[in-house]
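Problem 3 from the worked examples.
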Amino acid sequence: MQLPNHNRLAVRHGFPTVSVAAMPPALTALLAQLMALLAIGLAAAMVPLLGQGQLPGQMQWALLQGMLAAAIGHWLGMARWWLPINLMFVPAAVAALAMDLSPFWFLGAFLLLALVYGKIYRTQVPLYLSSRAAVAAVASLLPQQRNFSFIDLGSGCGGLLQQLNKVRPDGIYQGIEAAPLPFLLSRLRSAFGVAGWRVSWGDFWRLDLARYDVVYAYLSPVPMAVLWRKARKEMRPGSILISNSFVVPGIEPEVTLKLDDFGGSTLYLWRL
């Protein structure tokens, strides 16, 4: 299932409308970087003409470019977690060049990010880890009957599943994860820890949700509307969907629980 890109229109108010809605987020970020670079280049060319004296150093220009790229990315409707990427991309490149780092460091960093985050450029879902407060709150929302089925969509390192299995061992817990390193860590935890939960490798958009009594998701704002449509189509009447921190646009949750954790998170519950 292809996720929509929720970028806004880039040009409005009487000008020719240019939409970035169909662009992948990585291309939108590149557009923001190029627009900021062009603006900084024009500013650098204008400073001598205006007689303003000595030009700022490379890092100062890079920081200005980063701040402008972050602002442009926000204006184009990019998710909040893209802001630090847009901000630090050029300053980090300038710093790396100044330190004369080996290209192998860049390759290693790229591979590490790919292992941790997987295909984040497509899913637009970063790695979020559920807090202990979230575990306790989710446990309070679980069905009272035994052998209920629970699925964590994008289960990360498996911490939520492991803790829920300890608190409510009468449930059947499953996770699904597509990022390589979190999946490997979760499999190791399940293999050497307490039995009763497991994690599968795969894309949860291809998973049929009809077999589960509880579906838990800690994703991002981008896929929530699509997830809701999938849940409405596949989940059984009476089953529940729980989202950590992110709401379904336009759909009022049945239960809202504010968590006392490091992120000030909120749990939202919808009953199908």
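Problem 4, a separate protein:
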Amino acid sequence: MQLTDTHAHVQMRQFTRDREAVLSRASEAGVARIICPGVDAATSKLAIDLAASRPGTIFACAGVHPHDTTGFNDATLAEIRRLATEHQEQVVAIGEIGLDFYRNLAPAEDQRRAFAAQVALARELDLPIVVHNRDAHDAIMEILRPFGTVRGVWHCFIGDRKMAEDGLSLGMYLSFAGPVTYPSNTALADVAAWAPLDRILVETDCPYLTPHPNRRDRNEPANVAKNAARVAELRGMDTADLATATNANAAALFGLPPLPADDSRKGAN
């Protein structure tokens, strides 16, 4: 069984001292591919460099997270465009972008301006978007709807079925992270059980959101297996089949080649 962790910040400082060991544990746990989003221009470049060092295994996203959008301007956007266009072999999406009205670490208007500009950039470059949505669903939908069909993913989806339906109606995917393992998240469990199989992904969002029962520990890509197992359990299906489906979905969204093991598994079925 192989898995794709569709959102892991392994380029970040939390992994500086033991990144190679973390990536080795991921490989041992069956994690065949990792999508590594940036949160600003600097971390996007770090993700690109890491992807370049591990072609076919790690892929990068370039973008500015809502927490980092204070003062977002044309120069900021130009740098994200440059990173995405000059490193097309590594960059598979624009992200992590979105709105966060829970922590409000940047002014709301700066967040809105940055999000709309980066969605437009993704459309210009024919890339999907990786969306952060925290207490900002209506505002995000207001920005996305005029674009019509949207190629993208609700990263670390934690909403209810109505929010899921809104995203799916645009053509987006839903990605499940550690919160799907938390016993109190019954609404999220309902969405994971119900969502169309061809529209779901799994991720860790490491170093954050470690799966239950180890929530105080630093998260890492190897734990995506625990999230996948929980989603499979909720859907009443085999984890290996869930892995095959989510690998195919990740390949479709991010423009990745299929994993050879998934091809052979489909042939055996």
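Solution to problem 4. The first strand starts at residue 3 and ends at 5. The first helix runs from residue 19 to 28.
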